[in-house]
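Need a sequence for this fold. Nothing fancy.
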């Protein structure tokens, strides 16, 4: 099964992000964007790839240990951008203000906990974001650059980080389906 570790997004943030995504969808863009289903929005801490059932059982205690060592916290979901940059976007995203580096610290702890289980840390430095869409073409599109720019100062609400989750991702022609395999409350000792 394909798996990843992520933070769930509250409904109010999901609704605000959906409004922004709808605004982008309605703009006449010069490139085709594969939009992420808003129901699937999450903040990825680490993508694990294909894993077996046996590995899932080993991941749960490691994730629980990470969770109990971190207290719940809040971050603002705001702004928008693109990877690698807005001139040649491959991924359109909404950002998270991680001024206190709490998300980065949590992601680093998750990745360090996964290392002994055979999962290498992410190659890129952690950047807290919610993926809105992916662009397959490599060409620049001024309309998309403007559209992303129109969301730069947008605020989408507060994300209260209270748990980390292990998700399974099943690929289907109509889009991915995510299923929670386990949840680990931050600061909880059970």
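Here you go.
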């Amino acid at each position: 099964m394909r798996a990843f570790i992520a933070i769930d997004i509250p409904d109010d943030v999901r609704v605000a992000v959906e409004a922004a995504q709808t605004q982008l969808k309605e703009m006449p863009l010069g490139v085709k964007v594969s939009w992420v289903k808003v129901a699937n929005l999450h903040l990825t801490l680490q993508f694990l790839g294909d894993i077996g059932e046996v590995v899932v059982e080993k991941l749960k205690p490691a994730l629980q240990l990470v969770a109990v060592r971190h207290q719940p916290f809040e971050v603002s979901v705001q702004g928008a951008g693109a990877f690698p940059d807005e001139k040649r976007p491959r991924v359109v995203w909404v950002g998270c203000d991680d001024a206190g580096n709490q998300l980065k610290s949590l992601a680093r702890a998750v990745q360090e906990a996964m290392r002994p289980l055979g999962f290498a840390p992410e190659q890129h430095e952690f950047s807290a974001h919610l993926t809105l869409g992916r662009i397959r073409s490599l060409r620049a599109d001024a309309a998309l650059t403007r559209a992303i720019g129109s969301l730069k100062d947008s605020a989408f609400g507060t994300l209260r980080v209270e748990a980390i989750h292990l998700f399974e991702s099943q690929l289907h022609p109509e889009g991915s389906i995510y299923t929670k395999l386990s949840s680990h409350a931050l600061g909880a000792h059970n």
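For context: The chain has four helices and nine strands.
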